[in-house]
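Run log, item B.
One chain of 452 residues. Sequence copied directly from the ordering sheet:
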Amino acid sequence: MTSLLPTTERALLHRLAVEQRDGRVPSIIAGLVRDGETIWVDARGEVDGTAPTSDTQYRVGSITKTFVAVLVLRLRDEGRLDLADKLDQHVPGTSIGNRSITEILTHSSGLTAEPAGPWWERTPGGSAGELLATLDGSGLRPAPRHVFHYSNVGFGVLGELVARHRGRSWFDAAREEILEPLGMNRTTPAPVAPHARGWAVHPWADVLLPEPAEDAGAMAPAGQLWSTVDDMARWIRFVAGETGEVLHPDTVAEMRAPGAVDDGDQWRAGFGLGLQLFRHGGRRLAGHTGSMPGFLATMLANPADGSGAVFMANTTSGVGSAIVLDLLDILDKHEPRIPEPWKPRADVDTALLDLTGQWYWGPTPHVLRILPDGLLDLVPWQGKGRASRFRSNGDGTWTGLDGYYAGEVLRVGRAADGAPTHLDLNTFIFTRTPYAEDAPVPGGVDGWRPAE
């Protein structure tokens, strides 16, 4: 584990200790990841008389949903389904049969948050058939389609979708396709020692009530799993893009793209394909919060720099996911990243140099430069407007990777001598001077003139 400065460790421990004391939490453990490595783990409180360690299991609740989402995306990447498919094509006979898989993954199907019957988190779960039989018209909320409405039931249904395609339970699929390949051997559907016990803390006295830890049955895909800080640190790295052979990094990036907004006009939180999304301090974070009787947890990854944080606690209430954001803030404040020294590169394709520099879309200046990984980067000169990176197609054209021009083709117009004259980006024309006369549309328009 990389060593942090003593002042950093003290600041992190202080934040954790305050959370444990003020939240009256029996035990809490947290960890930080940076550059693909766990750089800090600490804990407060006790589990069976001793401090928890990075190998102590806690129930992680709805973080379970992120694993189910990965299983669904694996099926998509194998060609077994399309995210635009209606549920009826895979699990027929429910009231949401005309909803797409994407809508269920992004919690925008209109399906109720909780299943019919007794409180599912505190009672033994039933079979998939029993769950599906309850999904009649009463399970649809009055809010219009495509509006965010969190649904635990939706992920119970997705777990059944996975099981039907794989011919085994969703968890057996997760173990074979995700957990074992990533070395996450301490993530299980039932607790395996050492593990914490779930507690509720009395609101007005310092006494505890043991919480049940039932098998949720068909609802297990919504929140069944137990895990450790070590395993969650690996999952942070996965969500950030270190995906091994489980998924292509581009698929995980697709999962991190916003699909639904969770907090209205502010847009600080939302959902991608099974991943919760947050904006905080200039970061775009992805992961999930989790809660089950007696347990709270949150894991978030920052794909931009491969960092992330996790906490797990054995209490029904008293800890907020803001602690994860605070730990990331403390790390950045006390130990900001030191940039690698700049140095010239030997692998730059100098044939591309004539493309670099200023280009104009109408009167608006842009700059094109070559990135260290051989990509082209087209950005507005003053930072306002559409920016995208482009990857070479090997035939003189380039395809946008992100931003407004994601998936669009960039073509270079050249003069008879081969000199670049304009960029044609899906019919948008960029020229070396504003409205260059010798370029295609707009081709100079009517000329520049002073005010009359």
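Observations after the first pass:
- The chain has a mean pLDDT of 93.
- Residues 26-334 form a domain with the Beta-lactamase fold (CATH 3.40.710.10).
Flagged for discussion on Thursday.
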